[in-house]
Design a protein that fits this description.
The protein has about 240 residues and is α/β, with parallel strands linked by helices. The protein has six helices and seven strands. A hairpin with a 5-residue loop joins strand 4 and strand 5. Helix 3 runs antiparallel to helix 4, helix 3 packs across helix 5 and helix 3 packs across helix 6.
Length: about 240
């Protein structure tokens, strides 16, 4: 028996009072009501800085090493541990921004300088934030012409911009992880590709939106990574 997951309570994207970022954040929080931080990001200027750290910060290597050591407490194999940390960081960079891209044709900046990470009391990653909340959107978006919005010409342009910005963070993440345990580049980028493929398949079920549109935009994002020279279509 096939179980169709729908989320009728997920709000449609619309022109509402407040910024486009607030609109997007509300929609993404509703995708997983029991875990509203899974896809949504915070505006870090609104948050107390306790347990937040900048992905571009000088303490990045120390922070990532602590994540790795924490996973090693439960996983004996360093290869498995480093891949678990890689997966968590890939979700921060790509898994979260993938949601507004495939569902609504919107993207915040997933670049290295813009991302912040929040850790829970146990030391695990439980949230992410952005310093600049400007959104890139498609023509005809309800927020077109409002403050904090930049309109890109088409879906392909959105995918290319998102991938190229994400690469700045992902490449740094991969280099930093090498200080914990060896992680082959092909394997790392295959994990990125798997995150895109999996997310593009799951997100429309959570939002009760078009699977065809989500799949198309996911493939455009993969194409953009490949065109930039990153083997996200490798075997994971």
């Amino acid at each position: 028996m096939t179980l169709l997951l729908t989320r009728p309570e997920v709000p449609e994207i619309c022109a509402v009072p407040g910024s486009a970022f607030d609109d997007t954040r509300t929609r993404l929080r509703a995708l997983a009501p029991d875990a509203p931080r899974v896809y949504a990001v915070a505006r870090v200027d609104e948050e107390p800085r306790r347990r937040w750290w900048r992905l571009a910060g000088e303490d990045r290597a120390q922070r990532v090493d602590l994540l790795y050591r924490r996973v090693l407490d439960d996983v004996e194999d360093p290869r498995i541990a480093v891949e678990q940390v890689a997966g968590a960081l890939i979700h921060v960079v790509v898994g979260r921004v993938l949601a507004p891209v495939v569902l609504d044709g919107r993207a915040w900046d997933p670049g290295l300088e813009n991302l912040w990470i929040h850790q829970d009391s146990d030391g695990g990653i439980d949230w992410a934030g952005v310093a600049d909340d400007t959104l890139r959107v498609l023509p005809g978006d309800p927020a077109e012409g409002t403050r904090g919005v930049v309109v890109l010409p088409c879906e392909q342009a959105l995918a290319i911009w998102t991938a190229h910005r994400a690469v700045t963070a992902l490449s740094t993440v991969h280099r930093t992880l090498q200080g914990c345990a060896p992680l082959d580049g092909a394997r790392f980028w295959a994990l990125v590709g798997r995150a895109v493929v999996t997310g593009a398949a799951q997100l429309p079920m959570l939002a009760a939106s078009s699977r065809q549109v989500s799949a198309r935009r996911g493939q455009q994002l993969l194409d953009a990574f490949v065109s930039a020279g990153f083997p996200v279509r490798g075997l994971a």
